[in-house]
Amino acid sequence: MSFKRIEAIILRQVYLYKRSFTRLLEVFYWPMLDLLLWGFVTIYLQRSSEGLPAFVSYFLGALILWDILFRAQQGISVSFLEDMWARNLINIFVSPIKVSEYLLGLITISILKVVIAFIVMSSLAWLFYSFRIFQIGLTLLPLVLNLVVMGLAVGIFTTALILRFGQEAEILAWAIALLFMPFSAVFYPVNVLPPVLREIACFIPSAHVFEGMRMVISTSKIPVKNILWASVLNSIYLLLALFFFLRIHKGALTRGILPKIGE
Amino acid sequence: MSGSLVSILKVEGLSKKFDNVYALKGVSFELSRGEILGILGPNGAGKTTLIHSILGLITPTEGRIKIFGKELRGNRVDILKRVNFAANYVLLPFSLTLWENLMVYAFIYEVENPPKRCGEVLELFELYHLRNMLTRKLSSGQMMRLTLAKAMINDPEILFLDEPTAGLDADIAKKTRQLLKSLCKERGLSVLYTTHNLLEMQEVSDRVLFLQREVLAAGTSTDLLNRYNVTNLEELFFKVLGK
Questions:
Q1: Any residues with CB less than 8 A from the CB of B234 and at least 6 apart, and which?
Q2: Assembly ipTM
Q3: DSSP of chain A, one letter per residue?
């Protein structure tokens, strides 16, 4: 494992973002817009519906945490797409960089993006709505970590699909994480879902995270069971995603599709 | 040939099938230190598949590839650190400056003192004055020179070039050829080179290998011209291909 090669992948993205206003906008603009729009909607709903004391906290907390998952996933797949769009993938794959080093570079970039987006969203939530995400306390850490890991697993899985199907699969970089949103019970409790979807939600780590978040906000209790479930599922999914990526990469070498990806 | 006859690349019985169709069939050849080996063949002859297989971008169906006496499989990192690649269809990110692009690859190839080496290769390809320019602003000739600069970032022992002068102005293509020849002479660089330009091939290559899925003929230009009783590579090309 070479840290210098991992650093190269990070450096490439840092160079890209430091100059590109539109890419920087993507890190700040959408989270900010989401927060402003849904924050004010939530305040309005809370004022007009009595008996929903923690509504703003539920909603804003969910919004900030969901963005973590989404950014973590995008950090991987969009960074890969950047290399594909730049027709730079061949240069990378004929270089001494290992697949594991390339993935670790993308993972680091993804985590950096998550941290930046998290800071921006938490600050804005505090500024506009006096909502302090850190009121969740130390429990926030395992919840956030689980969302990051799930985002990475989904990101690696999506990237593998792009590697297999090329440009046609580009849209998945934006669509796949959203597919998990209804089952994750981000803005509502899992028991709102119909029984079949509730069963599915049991196998979605983020559903456990958001249930846990609501429990902390309403009862201040540590959601041990939710955290454990999410951690076990995430460990399995991350391993499966890595295995899937390596299989697809190996298949791409056999089928000779790596040089054609992006065409 | 400018270098000694030490074989640093050995390809034995290399075959690649895509959907039961051979793209390469039983290809064998060697490349010596300091040698420029030109691969000639019509479109779809397998030239690019050959280079991609040697570089590990495509897994061969059969055959062996030894570089620096080692099998590519199991020694990928060690081998790829000492070789490099450039092609007209592979670009560098447009949103980065020339300097930034080269710095990224200097890190990837774990070059000692990356800024110094980036400066050197930019000077070598007469791009130093453009170092802070965005890559998207380069002309196609400058872009190709940048791609070659990237290919020289690790001071490789073998350079794989897939149609490097395609689309270049005649004078820039000539400069590129001269530069390659001088690099081979001065540094003992070996080059595996594909081009559609037969005159260029004759001017640059120490040896030529005619490929149409399998090796049809191989040797120095002079040997081949004599063997097939023709006066230039164009005639030879058609004769070897049986056209």
A1: B198
A2: 0.88
A3: --HHHHHHHHHHHHHHHHH-HHHHHHHHHHHHHHHHHHHHHHHHHHHHSTT-TTHHHHHHHHHHHHHHHHHHHHHHHHHHHHHHHTT-HHHHHTSS--HHHHHHHHHHHHHHHHHHHHHHHHHHHHHHH---GGGGGGGHHHHHHHHHHHHHHHHHHHHHHHHHHGGGGTTHHHHHHHHTHHHHTSSS-GGGS-HHHHHHHHT-HHHHHHHHHHHHHHH----HHHHHHHHHHHHHHHHHHHHHHHHHHHHHHHHT-GGGTT-
Q: Is A198 on the interface with B (CB under 8 A)?
A: no
Signed CA dihedral, A48, A53, A56, A58: sign only: negative
Closest-approach residue (CA) in chain A for B59: A254
Distance CA B167, CA B177 (A): 14
DSSP state at residue B129 = G
With CA atoms as reference, the chain A residue closest to B134 would be A19
With an 8 Å Cβ cutoff, are B57 and A7 in contact?
Answer: no
Burial of B170: CB neighbours in 10 Å, binned 0-12, 13-18, 19+: exposed
d(CA B216, CA B218): 7
pLDDT at A29 over 70: yes
**pTM score, two decimals?**
0.88
3-state secondary structure of B157: coil
pLDDT digits 0-9 by tens, A111-153:
998 898 888 888 888 888 777 777 777 778 899 999 999 999 9
Contact flag A253-B81 (C-beta cutoff 8 Å): no
* Rg, Å, chain A Cα set: 19
